[in-house]
Amino acid sequence: MDFATWTPFITVAAAISGILLGWAGRSRAINQDIAQQASADALQRADIEFIKRGVDDIRLDQKREVLIVVVALLFIGVILKKTPRVADWLIPWLLTVSGVGLAWGVYGSH
After folding, report:
1. Total structural domains in the chain?
2. What pLDDT is stored for residue 89 in this prediction?
């Protein structure tokens, strides 16, 4: 057999091996992309959980501080109501101003 007879077989074998190698390389790249994306997603979820915990801590602190303001306003309201010189229509206005002042004092001016 001469070289001309083997040429088509070699060409077909080279084409098939090229297709198989290309497919195997692409499959490997897809698997690596999936693994990298999963790692990035896990990191993002961990970051989100960290942020959620921080927000929950802030909310707990705010609830405590708001409770202080509410109790103080209740106490001020009872005192104003029992004071004969303060008109009833004036009490909500005084409590509003007091509430703003207390909230500003508890939370700060920022």
Report:
1. 1
2. 92
